[in-house]
Specification:
The chain is an alpha/beta fold. The protein has a domain of 137 residues: Rossmann fold (3-Layer(aba) Sandwich), CATH 3.40.50. A six-stranded mixed β-sheet has the order 6-7-8-3-9-10, sandwiched between helices. The chain has a four-stranded antiparallel β-sheet with strand order 2-1-4-5, covered by helices on one side. The N and C termini lie far apart (39 Å).
Length: 239
Amino acid sequence: MLEIIDLHVSYGAIKAVQGISLKVPEGKIIALIGTNGAGKSTTLRTICGLLKPESGRILLEGQDITGLPTKDIVRRGISMVPEGRHVFPDLTVYENLMLGAYIRTDRKEIEEELEEVYRLFPRLKERSQQLAGTLSGGEQQMLALGRALMADPKVLLMDEPSLGLAPVLVQEIFSLIRRIHERGKTLLLIEQNARAALTLAHYAYVLETGRIVMEGTGADLLKNDEVRRIYLGEGEVAG
């Protein structure tokens, strides 16, 4: 579905992504884990066309989308839930959701998608005429997810969906992500909560300083001593 081949991205003299390659198969949840500065968000922003790579290729269904304008990438089927949610605080929940559907023209399909989003996030329907800026952090994250789904993407990118949320809300957000996947969506997930991400993911990649240093199924990485020590906070593992 989505493939990255030997991607290099720099901020001036800083090499943020150094030759990573990864695959996001159709219908799967793929996770990228790593510490701050590992290159996770840079990777997502490059896929979306917000950053231009120095070299490398990004393919969607075999078609090269490297360096295309963001609006064209969205039209081809990629949407992102950005870190920090970035809802429009002075617009209503409904208006925020409608902005997610800006590339679509069939009114009936848009209304059907809206009802599907409301079924997934009943609280958004309850608060449809409420200003987005008055929502709680968890509700704003639901709105950001719903807004991205309104584009009916083939691949949904999520950048730190649990960031800043209380533990009980983190569980709820990951439950919702699982439900989104069950609707048939292909997901690429960046998440500092490595345990939650690996529990959810079919396959995962570990990034360190712009390079992939480890990969495997979510279940296998959860059992890996180095992953447990560095990313799961389990201290030194005897062995």
